[in-house]
Design brief:
The protein is an alpha+beta fold. Helices cover 33% and strands 28% of the residues. The strands form 2 sheets. A 6-stranded antiparallel β-sheet has the order 1-2-3-6-5-4. A 6-stranded antiparallel β-sheet has the order 7-8-9-12-11-10, with helices on both faces. The longest helix is centred in the middle third of the chain and has 18 residues. The protein is elongated, with a radius of gyration of 21 Å. The N and C termini lie far apart (73 Å).
Length: 279
């Protein structure tokens, strides 16, 4: 009579073991709580915001509370995503208040009360209720323990943007809304795209943003370019206005580069051709 119950429980336990989490004693803390979530159950944990994670390919989540002597309680979340690129994407639109980070790691953001980053297909977020030196040290140690065991993988990104640590990856409307909402006005009504973008240092760059949009098909790319005007090919002085203040350049591979805030056609063309650091 109990076999049906066992048949349900055993697969769930086996699945839960595939979700990375801290091991007992790892990072010097004492684990006081461990919970796992998968699929649509994420909504019950996050109470808002789960759809953004699903857009990026959420698989499962491990949540642990860890007591660290002198640092209080720290919450460790490991979001298992569908790929290292998906993990980098959700990290890129979730990070905020970055003040520091380990230069030896590819993707890490340390700020007040938190440290976050990626380890292969996992997005890691570690938070505490205090921001004392002891709490900051404990967060770093826990993060380093997880990344050291799980490893990091550098994600191949557009060579045009010439950066990996500060690129924002967006795979749909929620990613755009959270990562670079200025793009909503030009991407509204379009689908089948991924966006790689960077915020420049506006004090020296002289423009607001630059992005590279890749469409999943030639038809989708033409549909976008069609309502925005006739883009020139990815060579020569080919920038042109999409909307007031927007410039766009069509490139091979169903790619369109777009930027906002350039003061004139010449500067727009130079940035769109050479990249945001080619100024």
């Amino acid at each position: 009579m109990k076999w049906p119950l066992l048949l349900v429980v055993i697969p769930v336990l086996a699945y839960a073991q595939t979700v990375p989490s801290l091991l007992p004693g790892e990072g010097g803390g004492r684990i006081t709580r461990t919970e796992t979530y998968q699929g649509r159950s994420l909504s019950g944990y996050m109470n808002g915001g789960a759809e953004l994670f699903h857009e990026y390919g959420f698989v499962a989540l491990s949540v642990q509370d860890v007591a660290v002597a002198g640092a209080g309680e720290i919450t460790v979340e490991v979001f298992r995503m569908s790929s290292p690129r998906a993990a980098l994407g959700i990290y890129s639109v979730s990070r905020h208040g970055c003040m520091d980070g380990d230069p030896a790691l590819f993707y890490v953001c340390e700020g007040a009360y938190q440290v976050q980053g990626t380890a292969r297909e996992n997005y890691i977020r570690i938070q505490s209720g205090t921001d004392t030196p002891a709490a900051r040290k404990a967060r770093r140690v826990l993060f380093a323990a997880l990344v050291g065991r799980l490893g990091q993988e550098k994600v191949a990104l557009s060579s045009y943007l010439r950066s990996s640590s500060d690129v924002i990856l967006m795979h749909g409307p929620l990613g755009v809304q959270n990562g670079m909402p200025d793009l909503e006005e030009v991407l509204e009504g379009n689908d089948g795209y991924t966006v790689q973008a960077v915020w420049p240092d506006t004090s020296t760059a002289g423009y607001d943003l630059v992005a590279e949009i890749t469409f999943s098909s030639d038809d989708l790319m033409k549909a976008f370019a069609g309502h925005s005007g006739d883009a020139m090919e990815c060579s020569g002085v080919a920038a042109f206005t999409v909307h007031k203040g927007w410039w766009m350049l069509r490139c091979p591979g169903n790619v369109i580069r777009i930027m906002k805030g350039a003061p004139n056609r010449e500067q727009a063309a130079r940035i769109l051709l050479d990249g945001p650091q080619g100024r």
